[in-house]
Every structure is written in structure tokens, then in C-alpha cells.
């Protein structure tokens, strides 16, 4: 199952569709911290996307 503006994710509990926010992530600048501060766009504030920082993932302002 796939939403028109999202991708579907399989979890231990259930299958659900997660909206992908518009825009693109900025390109990583070197190696970032190896931490996972977000799991997808849905876990970031409005106007931000969950992006790679070169090692982990953090919320960043989307490039429109």
C-alpha cells in the first residue's frame, strides 16, 4: 500500500504510510555526528525534512 504523497513503512506493529514532505535535503558537508535524531519527515518540525548528515540523520530545513 502506498499513499499518493508518501511511502509505506513496515513496522513490528503494523503497516502504515508516512507522508514525504516536499523539497530536498541539503547535501551532507563532510562527516556528521553518527546519531539518529529523526526517523522520517514526520518526526521533524514543519518546513524540515529528516536528512543524512553524513553519518546519522537530523532534521534540516528543506530546499524547495
TrEMBL record:
WAP domain mapped to chain residues: 18-63
Key word Signal present: yes
Pfam families reported in the protein's UniProt record: WAP
Source domain of life: Eukaryota
Swiss-Prot/TrEMBL keywords: Signal
SMART domains per UniProt: WAP
GO cellular component, one term: extracellular region
InterPro entries: Elafin-like_sf, WAP_dom
Signal peptide: 1-25
GO MF annotation list: peptidase inhibitor activity
KW Signal (keyword) present: yes
Name of the protein this chain belongs to: WAP domain-containing protein
Species of the source: Chelydra serpentina
